[in-house]
Amino acid sequence: MVESRLEKLDEWVIRQVSCEENGKANTLAGIAATFPIKEAVMLPVYLKVAPLITPEGGTRGRESKRANSAYKQHTSL
């Protein structure tokens, strides 16, 4: 399939993209690598944008305790 599409182009370049440059694709590849391969399966992928939860700073009082608790639960998975 790829070769047939490349034949239609007059000029093309293959370039390797580093993991640092394309972190989302690297993450997705890591997830896909954990699935056992029995047959080809199409999985829908949704990107959910969420603020980063850090153990320090950014919040005060009760909000800080909730953020720290959420961070600890997330990192212990």
Automatic annotation (TrEMBL):
It comes from the Eukaryota. Residues 55-77 are annotated as: Disordered. This is RNase H type-1 domain-containing protein. It comes from Vitis vinifera.
